[in-house]
Write a structure and sequence with these properties.
508 residues; alpha+beta; Thrombin, subunit H; 6-stranded antiparallel beta barrel; 6-stranded antiparallel β-barrel; 31% strand; disordered N terminus
Length: 508
């Protein structure tokens, strides 16, 4: 697994293998003299009656075989003897002298050159590691315990030829045209196949700046090219969100798509991790779809970009896989072939390149596909009045020994509550309250960032239940305090709202 490594000490195992002895049954066939099987057995040396011979053919039990091979004792004693010995008992048999506690102490490692004393070492409970990995977003929520164990012991996977080939089948080149008679495209970029059906219909993810001429006008014509194909597939515009640099196109009943090996991407359900290997696939400089390799340099940072003629700050993944003009809208994949981002920019003449995190991409594209039609070309969300007004009053980065990863934690406060908004109407929260947890439809989120609520609302619908748990800190000036110092009163605050369709709004 690229995104995490766990330290494990030693696992001591003891096991006994029970060998099942299968009885050998003799098959006798009648000869020319028509002798019976019993008569043939007698001719071959068996001594006894036919009943005794028949009894001799019965399979012996494992206990009987053990007795024949020298075991002395009852069947119950034999069964008891099969129980595996503990590691301590095996150690005693092999010469260790002392109590079990003393034996355990003897297992502690010596001081390494740069390591900690062995007495500080800790064992690893793999199920506990599995649970924490899911909680920390180290593995997909759909990952089973057995799948986790396979990844745990397999180490970092290789990006194989078959995985790369599959990813290539999920990418398209996109050429945007201002008119159907245009010989050359006005804009070019890449796209990722979001979904595809058996009738040749598909949705394609790309960047807003690939699909739009400017902040208000989209290109009316698009031609898509699959990997290795010279014939284009026409596409139409579905909808977009400029504030995330995301747009969605649609292909309808394409015979070329049906005949191809094109396939939809598989979305990873957690974001990119620092130092994991990544692969960028897109149409670099109109030269055809290419693949480049890099690593995640920064998990998330705010980057000022000019999208559609408007400068805004965007939360981006930074990576160093080479991209250039034409890669915009292409995919960023992990070593397992899962989509972790959509590439959308970089700093010229450097390897500081950027991608939109999958935690934005998946819900936003689903939102656009669900809500956009002939009359609406924007993603729709239910606004609460605080999601655009959260600020980090403190940010710290810690190293988590249990997951061997760096975790960024923010202290997030409400800077403003919009008048007549849902939380203004509810009336509990105030400006300055510090958010501790967000519970959305029963799921609790406790590692709060400034974009946590905004990301959850990308999938919002009427009837969703949202609870904000917060702390309110009030400073009190005590008149008789000789040092004239303030004291603080901390109050726990909880505010719950049910999202109504009346506050549905278009995402810019």
């Amino acid at each position: 697994m690229d995104n995490f490594k766990y330290k494990i000490k030693k696992w001591l195992k003891t096991s006994l293998v029970l060998i099942l002895i299968l009885p050998i049954c003799l098959m006798f066939t009648a000869c020319n003299n028509n002798l019976s099987a019993y008569e043939l057995a007698v001719e071959n040396g068996f001594k006894g009656t036919e009943a005794e011979w028949l009894n001799s053919l019965k399979s012996k039990s494992a206990y009987e075989i053990a007795v024949e091979n020298g075991f002395k004792g009852t069947e119950a004693e034999w069964l008891e003897s099969l129980k595996g010995k503990s590691a301590y008992e095996l150690a005693v048999e092999n010469g260790f002298k002392g109590t079990e506690a003393e034996w355990l102490v003897s297992l502690q490692g010596q001081n390494g050159e740069n390591g900690e004393d062995g007495k500080n070492a800790s064992s690893v409970d793999t199920y506990d590691a599995y649970t924490k990995a899911k909680q920390n977003g180290e593995v997909p929520n759909t990952c089973t315990y057995l799948e986790f164990l396979e990844m745990f012991f397999a180490g970092s996977p290789d990006y194989t030829y078959s995985v790369a080939s599959k990813n290539l089948m999920s990418i398209v080149s996109i050429y945007s045209y201002a008119s159907p008679s245009s010989i050359s495209s006005s804009q070019s970029g890449s796209g990722v196949i979001h979904s595809i059906d058996s009738e040749g219909n598909a949705y394609i993810i790309t960047n807003f700046h690939v699909a739009y001429q400017n902040s208000a006008t989209m290109y009316p014509y698009y031609k898509l090219y699959l990997y290795g194909q010279s014939e284009f597939i026409p596409a139409t515009f579905v909808g977009s969100a400029r504030s995330y640099d995301i747009a969605v196109l649609k292909v309808e009943k394409s015979e070329l798509l049906l005949k191809s090996n094109a396939q939809a991407v598989t979305f990873r359900d957690y974001d990119a991790k620092l130092a994991e290997t990544c692969y960028a696939i897109g149409d670099t400089n109109k030269s055809g779809i290419t693949l480049t390799k890099g690593v995640i340099s920064v998990e998330r940072e705010e980057v000022k970009m000019n999208i559609g003629g408007i400068y805004s700050f965007y939360n981006e993944i930074r990576h160093d896989a080479f991209i250039s003009h034409g890669n915009s809208g292409g995919g960023l994949f992990d070593s397992n072939g899962y989509l972790i981002g959509i590439t959308n920019g970089g700093v010229a003449n450097t390897l500081m390149n950027y991608a939109i995190p999958v935690s934005y991409v998946k819900p936003l594209c689903d939102n656009i596909i669900k809500n956009c039609d002939e009359n609406n070309k924007k993603a729709l969300i239910i606004k609460t009045g605080i999601e655009d007004h959260l600020e980090a009053i403190n940010t710290i980065t810690i190293y988590d020994k249990e997951t061997s990863s760096v975790i960024t934690k923010q202290t997030v406060a409400i800077s403003q509550i919009v008048v007549d908004s849902l939380f203004a109407i509810e009336g509990t929260l105030q400006s300055g309250d510090i958010i501790k947890t967000i519970t959305y439809n029963g799921i609790v989120y406790d590692n709060i960032k400034t974009d946590t609520l905004k990301t959850l609302l990308l999938s919002s619908k009427a009837g969703d239940v949202l609870t904000i748990s917060a702390e309110r800190i009030v400073k009190n000036q005590e008149e008789q305090n000789p040092e004239n110092q303030d004291t603080e009163t901390i109050t726990q605050i909880t505010a719950t709202i049910t999202l109504p369709a009346t506050h549905l709004d278009k995402l810019k």
